[in-house]
Amino acid sequence: MRNKYENEFLDLASKLDALVGGYGEITKHAIAITDSQDHQETIALLNKISDVADLKNNSPEVKFIAKTLKDSLVKYYGYITVLDICTNEIIMEDKRTLPDLLFELNELIGLDNVKTKVNDLIAYQKVQQMRKDKNLTATKSTLHLAFLGKPGTGKTTVARIVGRIYKQLGLLSKGHFIEVSRTDLIAGYQGQTALKVKKVIEDAKGGVLFIDEAYSITENDHSDSYGRECLTELTKALEDCREDLVVIVAGYTDPMTKFFNSNPGLKSRFNTFIEFEDYTAYELEKMLISMCSGYEYVLSKESKKEMRLILNKLVKTKDESFANGRLIRNIYDELIMNHAKRVVNIENPSIEDLSIIAIDDFKGLQLSQPVDTSFLLDENI
To answer: Is the NAD keyword given for this protein (predicted)?
Structure first.
């Protein structure tokens, strides 16, 4: 009997097949994976997903389903298994050019400070490469980066793009992306953590190792010998592997400051610190409208007006738990569900009924920061 992860995985494969007219090819790969965990079929499916996601003519819905299918494959196998398959068999080729990647970076909503910093880094590295080609002395600065800011501000997205850009510049041999947390780095027994960190470093060579909430490694710095062992090994790798590895550590600004002060020499391995600021209400509104448009939903005039009021209030009253882009994803998911519950009761709904997010769809909206939304349903507004 198939479990829920298998069923979700196969359903998404079938859906993507139908959307792209794949004649069952994607589904065939998926069935081979669930039946025998075939590594070659796994690579073939991942390459197919990459092709679908990169094809500019494909709709946002197709690209979303492709990404969701890839995420579902990771859930089915487990992240480390997929990583091992890709590392040991084939590192998928990213067909995006440097201009494609720069366009993708610069098209991200908001993040003006981040884009400026990253573009400056790219310009610097390009000039160093040109100097090297002309037999001039090229400065060998560390490529490792620190991303500071709250969750949902685009740190992971930018880290992925940076890895691919560095690959296009010839600074990394593969450009792949590995994301880890404390549990991926620290073992349960003394002496095993160093081995675990070495394995992660080895897998990440040629690409980007992204450590989110990096300060969790040393969260119990007075009693956590495992955390200290991990940090010692990681600090060594930052220097030893800097020719073909980029380590990006990320997290809230204040805890990250403590993290850098927890080990002598750690901060010197990083010379670029990029602050990811919270999104403005206007930027969050653009995200929601873009998300809706990508799946052929439209906010009505009244809905746009009230969404603006909600976002302005959320931004004005935000605290450290403010979720930025994740908040918008949650709002979008709830709006789509509320829309479905309303429209399912309409007999023979029109295209407009199926597409328009109405003011009623905001009823009962659950937000991470409590906001009184009862005014949305006031017919006198």
So the answer is: no
User: For residue 326, which of 157, 208, 163 has the smallest C-alpha distance?
Assistant: 157
Topology of 98-276 in CATH?
Rossmann fold (3.40.50)
* Domain range list for the chain: 4-88, 98-276, 281-377
Helix (H) or strand (E) holding 18: helix 4-20
| pLDDT tens profile 169-215 | 888 888 888 888 888 888 767 678 888 888 888 888 888 999 988 88
Q: Are strands 208-212 and 356-357 parallel, antiparallel or unpaired?
A: unpaired
Common-topology check for domains 98-276 and 281-377 = no
- CA 22, CA 51: separation in Å to the nearest integer? 12
CA-CA-CA-CA dihedral for 162, 168, 171, 175, to nearest 10: 60
Residue at token pair 């010998």: 225
Name every residue whose Cβ is closer than 8 Å to that of residue 356 and which is 6 or more positions away in sequence: 297, 298, 299, 300
Residue with structure tokens 């079938």?
14
307, 335 contact by CB (below 8 A): no
Which two three-digit tokens encode residue 247? 């380590």
> What SS3 state is found at 119?
helix
Dig out the tokens for 172 from the structure: 């990394």
pLDDT digits (tens, 9 = 90+) for 118-160: 999 888 888 888 888 888 887 777 789 999 998 889 998 899 8
Cα pseudo-dihedral 351, 353, 359, 361, rounded to 10:
-110
CA distances from 378 to 81, 306, 360 (A): 52, 11, 10
287 bridge partner residues: none
Closest CA to 49 of 32, 70, 64, 30: 70
Q: What's the CATH class of domain 281-377?
A: mainly alpha
Distance CA 67, CA 175 (A): 19
DSSP 8-class letter at 211: E
- Report the length, in residues, of the chain: 381
Q: Which of 188, 240, 234 is nearest to 210 (CA)?
A: 234
Rounded mean pLDDT of 229-236? Answer: 83
Cβ count near 109 (within 10 Å)? 16
In the sheet with 145-149, reading across from the earlier edge strand, the strands are: 177-180, 208-212, 246-251, 145-149, 272-276
